[in-house]
């Protein structure tokens, strides 16, 4: 199940980061979860949030106030918006499918927050 993250380009502090994940070979309305995960330089993986087959969402408590995950079922895409970014949001962002575990991942896209 190929997943492909978009490249958001340069992002400055206080801006909104917008990412899209395009899913092939599966449907957003199947009984799986569609996740965003990130990894900052030198740190471990951090789960950001997910959206399920019904469009319900859940978020990491630390990011809940700034993150929104949405979907476009007609294009089989789901998206992440992260508001008011700081350099601490610099990371490789991955989209991933959860069925019994995170079984399919995108290659990741590096997002650098810098003025």
Q: How would you classify the quaternary structure? A: single chain
The global form is globular
Q: What distance lies between the first and last C-alpha atoms, to the nearest angstrom?
A: 36 Å
Which structural class matches the secondary elements? mainly beta
Name the beta content range: over 45%
| Unreliable segments of 5+ consecutive residues | none
Sheet bearing the most strands, described? 6 strands, antiparallel
Compute the gyration radius: what is it? 13 Å
Helix content: under 10%
What's the tally of helices?
0
Annotation, overall tally of beta strands: 10
Please, what is the average pLDDT? Answer: 95
Give the helices and strands as they follow along the chain.
Answer: EEEEEEEEEE
Give your account of this protein's structure.
By secondary structure, this protein is an all-beta fold. The protein is built from no helices and 10 strands. Strands 3, 4, 5, 8, 9 and 10 form a 6-stranded antiparallel beta sheet that branches. Strands 1-2-7-6 form a 4-stranded antiparallel beta sheet, with no helix packed on it. β3 and β4 (45-51) form a beta hairpin. It is globular, with a radius of gyration of 13 Å. The N and C termini lie far apart (36 Å). The mean pLDDT is 95.
Brief characterization of the structure:
By secondary structure, the chain is mostly beta strands. About 0% of the residues lie in helices and about 45% in strands.
